[in-house]
Amino acid sequence: MKFDMGAQVLSNLASKSRGSSTDLGTLIRQLVDAAAPLEGKFNGAGRVAFDSFKSRSHEITAALNGSLSSLLGGQTGMEKAFGTGDQEQGDNARQQMGAANFDAARFGGR
């Protein structure tokens, strides 16, 4: 099996994920702000649901941002692991080439 990935793939992914986290927080704040004119317009179960939404919006935002933060941490760890693996692979190849007897592999006579 072959796994081929460009050097900047995980960096680009982390950068886009950071942007998505910011966008998500902004969208939730916009949703809460857009719902503000409805405050006090409901009675009964509708009011309870609306008040619950409004009071939990910060909790929901924090939970979503925490989840995205964990994803970013995982992406950063993957990037570090792939970079380390790439470096080790190069080091091992150079070490093996240094120990190889290329003269013994010549097919022509001297």
Word description of this protein:
- With 110 residues, the protein is mainly alpha-helical.
- Helices cover 75% and strands 0% of the residues.
- It has helices at 9-35, 45-99.
- The radius of gyration is 27 Å and the shape is rod-shaped.
- It starts with 8 loop residues before the first helix and ends in an 11-residue tail after the last helix.
- 0% of the residues are buried.
- The mean pLDDT is 81.
Question: What secondary-structure arrangement, pairings included, does this model have?
Answer:
Layout: H1 9-35, H2 45-99
Distance between the termini: 40 Å
Shape: rod-shaped
Low-confidence region ranges: none
| Rounded mean pLDDT score | 81
Provide the succession of SSEs: HH
Task: Describe the sheet with the most strands.
Answer: none
Please provide a brief summary of the model.
With 110 residues, the chain is an all-alpha fold. It has 2 helices and no strands.
List keywords for this structure.
0% strand; 110 residues; rod-shaped; mainly alpha
